[in-house]
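Propose amino acids for all 344 sites.
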């Protein structure tokens, strides 16, 4: 049994493993840390490459592509460790990245999960979209980051180097207590990919645990290596999964109001795509809602199973206003400009 298991989920990513796995190995050489590659039934030569070049790296072979959520759930059942660190295959950790994360977890039993600061691998002075320096959501469930609001990404000038509580830690580099991961049921496999780490963190926070970002730990992330940012499939998954997440986790007195307003906001987003001539994204939003409605009975069932475990409903890490309103109407582009958001 290792104290920390760094687990990389791979799917046809031999080129990414070739570039980034040596960096992970070089910068994760601490005692009681095991690096594991879990393969989602790749059709390329990923496993042969690892066995030939890095025979000391443990591999877990899955029988089919279970997606991000299912792949990790299946793989982590076969790993014995105190902490799991879910790591994307397109991440290059900086030297000394693990120690701040492990220290944070060791020093606070209420801390369920944490994440490093994430910068863009192609533009290292900039934050990276997938997590930046910690994740949050607004009143309506739209996610944003300390260092990234919607598609506006800030330059990292050290302005977000303070260790702070966050609402969600990115699945691109997520350290979490192994026992708790299994207790809460892991990632929701019905999501397949996208938003599943936010849903996981929300379920954890509803049980009274904390999540934080540890900016002393830094990694570089390519982002979009599996599915491009502009792909309609990503639009579909983000819209559908976000709605499912709201049904599962919102307190009862907020659920119907928030869902009703989200239908309006998503309609505006779809109309925006249509006006811009982005017909595939317009269709993706419509399809996401149809899929959400078809899954609603299942989502309500999950909500009911989670309700007895929910001890906390109010989270200071939820921005109490609309991030869409702040961005488009108030023209706020930086996390530091958001008002009425006190995290300390």
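Proposal:
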């Amino acid at each position: 049994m290792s104290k920390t298991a760094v687990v990389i989920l791979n799917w046809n990513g031999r080129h990414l493993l070739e570039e980034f796995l040596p960096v992970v190995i070089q910068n994760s050489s601490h005692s009681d840390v095991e690096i594991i590659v879990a393969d989602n039934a790749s059709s390329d030569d990923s496993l042969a490459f690892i066995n030939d070049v890095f025979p000391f790296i443990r591999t877990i072979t899955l029988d089919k592509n279970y997606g991000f959520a299912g792949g990790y759930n299946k793989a982590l059942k076969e790993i014995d460790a105190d902490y799991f660190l879910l790591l994307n295959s397109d991440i290059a950790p900086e030297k000394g990245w693990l120690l701040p994360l492990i220290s944070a977890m060791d020093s606070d039993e209420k801390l369920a999960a944490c994440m490093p600061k994430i910068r863009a691998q192609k533009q290292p002075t900039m934050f990276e979209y997938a997590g930046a320096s910690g994740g949050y959501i607004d009143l309506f469930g739209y996610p944003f980051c300390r260092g990234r609001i919607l598609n506006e990404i800030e330059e990292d000038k050290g302005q977000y180097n303070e260790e702070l509580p966050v609402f969600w830690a990115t699945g691109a580099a997520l350290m979490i207590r192994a026992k708790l991961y299994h207790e809460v049921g892991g990632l929701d496999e019905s999501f397949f990919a996208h938003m599943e780490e936010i849903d996981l963190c929300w379920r954890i926070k509803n049980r009274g645990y904390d999540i934080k970002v540890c900016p002393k730990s830094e990694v570089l992330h390519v982002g979009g290596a599996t599915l491009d940012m502009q792909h309609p499939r990503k639009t579909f998954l983000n819209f559908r999964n976000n709605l499912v997440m709201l049904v599962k986790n919102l307190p009862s007195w907020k659920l119907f109001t928030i869902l009703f307003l989200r239908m309006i906001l998503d309609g505006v987003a779809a109309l925006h795509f249509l006006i811009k001539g982005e017909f595939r994204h317009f269709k993706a939003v419509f399809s996401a809602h149809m899929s959400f409605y078809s899954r609603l009975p299942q989502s309500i069932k999950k909500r009911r199973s989670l309700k007895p475990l929910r001890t906390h409903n109010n989270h200071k890490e939820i921005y109490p206003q609309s991030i869409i309103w702040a961005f488009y109407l108030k023209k706020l582009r930086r996390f530091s400009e958001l008002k009425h958001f006190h995290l300390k």
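The mean pLDDT is 95. The domain at 2-221 is CATH 3.90.550.10 (Spore Coat Polysaccharide Biosynthesis Protein SpsA; Chain A).
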